[in-house]
Amino acid sequence: MKATVIGGAGRMGRWLVKHFIDLGYNITIADINMKSAMAFANKVGADVAITNLEAVENASLIVISVPIESTVKVINEIASGLTPSMKLIEIASLKSSILPFLKKIVKEKRVVAISLHPLFGPGVKSLNKKRIALIPVSDPNIELRNARKLFPSADIFIVNVDVHDRIMALTLSLPHFINIAFASLISEEDLRLLKKLGGTTFSLQLIIAEGVMSEDPNLYASIQMNNVYTRDYLEKLLLKMKELKVAIDNKNVDAFKRIYNTSKSQLSKDEQFNEAYSRMYRALERLNEFNFQSV
Predict the structure, then answer these.
(1) Rounded to an integer, what distance in angstroms lies between the CA atom of residue 49 and that of residue 38?
(2) Fold of 2-159
């Protein structure tokens, strides 16, 4: 069986290549970075195609792992080479702009198109209990059945496209925004001194921020700028930050406590809320143990 991974030299693309090799597929890689694609293909025993259209020839499975804004372009490039026997997967983090083109391809080429969003990064070692969102294109049952065969042991669940993209504004755009701003601020300070004096909250926040800053800025810019829901949630975030700052500026303890307790009351509905503080410490202890073992 031949599987093609377009964008196979990228970080997530490499993970996908290795995953499908483990499933027994013969892999062909297509990537805009030909030098990187050739080096990686030689390492894992894959083939390399010059063009995206060439890459999909005779493939039973095609996986598109490219930036959000490039996904539709790639779909159009390979459209003439698609046949009804093929399965087409795309894994973009946002779906609203992509789904109409997938539906069009399904109608015209009668392929099985599967729109997935792996809710994990390329550093994951095992799919066990890892979550993947499936956004229906045509027939959710057929798409879910195929996805489960291709990603066994993963927790794959169906979610509507509008719900998906709105939630991504909260779970991707906002955390990235907060951490990029945090990183921008502390990068102007003495980081060694901050780490020496920083407590648990700061240490964990720094790890998250540095993890965010180690990624591709083009990816994060795309997530921020291509989600129609992001701006509204950023405005809400800034308003809440302003409200909290006003309470601090005015030394208004009652206002501060009101904001704090209102949020706490809502968050406490989470069944894991009462364990959050101890979980935070356990997470940091495990990270410290890992760092010690890695030295």
Answers:
(1) 9
(2) Rossmann fold (3.40.50)
